[in-house]
Design goal:
Strand content: under 5%
Radius of gyration: 16 Å
Distance between the termini: 8 Å
Largest sheet: none
Low-confidence stretches: 1-12
Structural class: mainly alpha
Length: 126
């Protein structure tokens, strides 16, 4: 698809193809495409989760921040977005342990990683 080796390497870092291969292995004949469904949910639910993370931070609702980070972490793991999963896991742990300044600071890496995942998915569809 016209991608350089460098872009394939950086995309591999953003998304682990093995995770999507595992989803493909679960596909049943005659059923809706599982990979498309999971990726579609990630694309639509992810921005809502990011907005909820930001509002929970602004409202200093640390339990909601922890829950939203946990939920986004799970979504990231489902599609193999390891850096996003790790960033969410760090915010979740920080919020749980009362390290609120660190949790807030961790939102920027989550947003950056989320954008990278969306860019990678878009380039793979092109």
């Amino acid at each position: 698809m016209g991608q350089t080796a460098h872009s394939k390497t950086s995309q591999a870092v953003v998304l682990d193809p093995a995770a999507l291969d595992q989803l493909r292995a679960l596909q049943r004949p005659g059923r809706p495409n599982l990979v498309e469904r999971v990726l579609g949910l990630f694309r639509t639910d992810g921005p809502q989760r990011l907005a909820s993370l930001r509002s929970a931070s602004a409202e200093q609702d640390w339990e909601r921040l922890r829950r939203e980070a946990h939920t986004l972490k799970s979504s990231a793991a489902n599609i193999g977005a390891q850096r996003l999963r790790e960033a969410c896991g760090q915010v979740e742990a920080d919020a749980k342990e009362g390290r609120y300044a660190e949790a807030v600071a961790g939102l920027e890496p989550i947003e950056r990683c989320f954008a990278e995942v969306l860019e990678t998915l878009a380039s793979e569809e092109a």
